[in-house]
Amino acid sequence: MRNEAVSPPAPSSNPQPTHATKKRLLEAGLAMLLQQGYNDLGVQAVLDATSTPKGSFYHHFESKEDFALQVIDEYMKGVHAGLDACLGDEARPPLDRIRRFFEMTQQHYRSEGYMGCLLGGLGQELSGVSDVFRRRIEKCFSRIAERMAVCLEEARRRGDIPAESDPRQMADVLVDCWEGAALRSRLRRNPAPLTAMLDFYFRSAAAR
Amino acid sequence: MRNEAVSPPAPSSNPQPTHATKKRLLEAGLAMLLQQGYNDLGVQAVLDATSTPKGSFYHHFESKEDFALQVIDEYMKGVHAGLDACLGDEARPPLDRIRRFFEMTQQHYRSEGYMGCLLGGLGQELSGVSDVFRRRIEKCFSRIAERMAVCLEEARRRGDIPAESDPRQMADVLVDCWEGAALRSRLRRNPAPLTAMLDFYFRSAAAR
DNA sequence: GTTGAATTAGACCGATCGGTCTAGAGCGAA
DNA sequence: TTCGCTCTAGACCGATCGGTCTAATTCAAC
Q1: Residue B34: pLDDT over 60
Q2: Which of B118, B155, B171, B187 could make an SS bond with B94 (beta carbons 3.0 to 4.6 A apart)?
Q3: Residue A206, pLDDT score
């Protein structure tokens, strides 16, 4: 439902970061926030990493907080693009589609040196101290679970999971367990906790 | 196996924080680290909260990092005390003992306003930046899972879970999923994710 | 009471923090 | 060319950071 590019120029009010500097800042910010977290990351470090003067930063962003929130938005665009690609794939059974999404996510984690999930990292660091971040991040998880619940409902109708299952609750449990496994994967710097968790979940969901 | 108080005075080399000031600092530090995390917490804030001068802090602790590591040690004493109390309870079936431990932990979370688990919080915040914390926290999780695996092995022998189960892997999955649920509980400020995850896990573990 | 170590007390340090401000460069439209 | 707006550039700000240092105090052992 998001508005795509309608026509080439289209100077819309708030499009994708069409501006090169802003885009660079957001990309560097994503990698740095993922690794260092929020409070350990200084604005100056982002500036140095991108050879950007401070004036540009505060031209594009109201504050460090605003910057991090926009990094989260960028991150979520990627997540939802992955969900679009996987969950809509009618050729596969719904449970397979969900699993495939997580397996692709796992590959993504690997490519970043097992730094886990930005939502989990910032959620743990900031939710005790900032209601803005707490609510924003909870909303992100909630949206993801919502989309998975649609798929699980389809699985339920097909009889792939028990008829008495509650798809939304199962989706929340899945997302939460994934986040826990992502933390452990980050601590161990390997993917084993992720695959072990997925194996357990999908075996259990189908079996009982 | 830990040494208990042998005789009242006993000036041993590194006992429990017998010293009142150090104890106060660690207690305040636990609550503050749980809420604010590491990087957002200034040493001065701990000093103010406990009316302690800076000289005392750096008398008892080498550095802020040393302080946080000792706070983790204190936290783990509590966790292992809980495990001692629950897992050894021969009157209950092994699976019940584990579940009871988590239910007590959940009560503990509630009493602290659903700030989740210190290991999860610091693990996410620091594991990308500090190998010291990363390894320490991984070790903590590993020890907890190890103890639960003993109980799960007992459950396996009794036939409460399938004979082909791998207790250690099941224990790791359980701990990881719990941490994920604890994060979500922190984001939502309520216990629902914790109970949903436990329900799913124990139903699945026994059933299949 | 004297001594010496443990602890308290807090001024002080350089570095870094997030953020502001002014100046000018770049550039498209008129 | 000139205007006007966007964006770059970086000096500068007060506050706070973790940590050091010296002096005063406390307290137990003798």
Answers
A1: yes
A2: B155
A3: 87
Q: Is the Cβ–Cβ distance between B114 and B192 less than 8 Å?
A: no
In sequence order, what DSSP letters do the residues of B51-71 get, joined into one string? Answer: T--HHHHHHH-SSHHHHHHHH
Would the pLDDT of B130 be above 90? yes
pLDDT in tens, A8-45: 333 333 445 568 899 999 999 999 999 999 999 999 99
Scanning every residue of chain B, which has its alpha carbon at the shortest distance from the alpha carbon of A199? Answer: B173
Specify the DSSP element, H or E, that contains B172: helix B167-188
Tens-digit pLDDT profile for residues B15-26:
355 688 899 999
Of A120, A170, A177, the CB nearest to B177: A177
């306003």: which residue's tokens? Answer: B113
Would you kindly state where each structural domain of chain A is located, as residue ranges?
Answer: 67-207
ipTM of the complex model: 0.91
pLDDT of residue B206: 87
| CA B19/CA B6 separation, integer angstroms | 17
Nearest to B79 by CA among B51, B46, B109, B52: B109
**What is the Cα A63 distance to its own chain's centre?**
22
Task: Identify the CATH number of the domain defined by range A67-207.
Answer: 1.10.357.10
Contact B37 A36 (CB under 8 A): no
Q: Cα B87 from chain centroid? A: 15
Is the C-beta of residue B59 closer than 7 Å to nucleic acid chain C? yes
B64-207 folds as Tetracycline Repressor; domain 2 (1.10.357)
